[in-house]
Amino acid sequence: MSAAVFQEHYRLPAGILTLAVHGAFFALLYLGFTWQTTPPAMMSVELWQSLPEEIVVPSEAASPSPAQTVEEAAPPEKVLVPDIALPDKKKVEARPEAKKPAKQQVAKPVEAVVPKPDTAIADREAAKERAEMEKAAQEQAAREQALLEQAARERAEKEAATGRIVDEHKAKIMAKIRRNIVMPANVPDDARAEFSVTLLPGGAVLEAKLLKASGNAAYDSAVERAILKSDPLPLPPDVSLFNKFRQLKLVFRPTE
Fold it and tell me: Which residues pair with 205 in a beta bridge?
């Protein structure tokens, strides 16, 4: 009777202990499976133009095991990274890709397409241009003819004026010489004496030469003396007309 009571007294604690042990075992199995199937942690990397001599890289924190639940995590280890100059990310991205040289295309000559003009219109335009050119040529010829005629009129007027001046002064010379002629006796009325008179600028008589005698020597001598006595002879004030008076041919008659 006492043995049965003793066994019943310890049956409840033994059952609780068994359940506790099995619970702890299943908890360890679950935690161990979860720790093994945990995915690896991601690591972020930054690019630097120049790296420091030492970089402290924290070690990946290990998942706590059942035996390390109370212990503190180990301090991060120092990892020495070699000083390697990395290329500048911006420069690498900004560098353009090498372009392949484009093939040079030889330009082919393009034949110009000239539209054919309307023959009738072209003929009318050509005729119009010819008519305008002919009209312009006629007008130019008319202007030139008018200028020539005007120049001829002016020249004739100038020559006429010069002739009038020459005739006027020749008459003055003849009148002055006649006034100085001493008429000899018995000179026929049809006597005619012709002289060549050479003058100097200003009217001075250089020479009086008998070209054709009158047949009366006394009359010829009287005329010659009268020419030399009339020195100087009257000349126009315009010196440009002296060539008209340099060599004069004068004719004398007793009845004049």
Answer: 199
Tokens 């047949």 belong to 215
Are the CB atoms for 195 and 208 separated by under 8 Å? Answer: yes
Q: What is the pLDDT of residue 254?
A: 87
Q: Which residues contact 247 (CB under 8 A, 6 or more apart)?
A: 196, 197, 198, 199
User: In order of start, what are the domains of the chain with their CATH numbers?
Assistant: 147-252 (3.30.1150.10)
CB neighbourhood size of 177 (10 A): 24
* 43-55 pLDDT, tens digit each: 666 666 665 555 5
Tokens 């301090």, located at residue: 75
**Nearest to 79, CA basis, from 50, 59, 49, 63:** 59
SS3 195: strand
Which of 37-41, 46-50, 135-139: highest mean pLDDT? 135-139
CA 85 to chain centre: 57
Q: What is the value of pTM for the model shown? A: 0.43
Q: How far apart are CA 31 and CA 64, in angstroms?
A: 10
d(Cα 21, Cα 210) in Å, to the nearest integer? 187
Is 18's pLDDT higher than 90? no
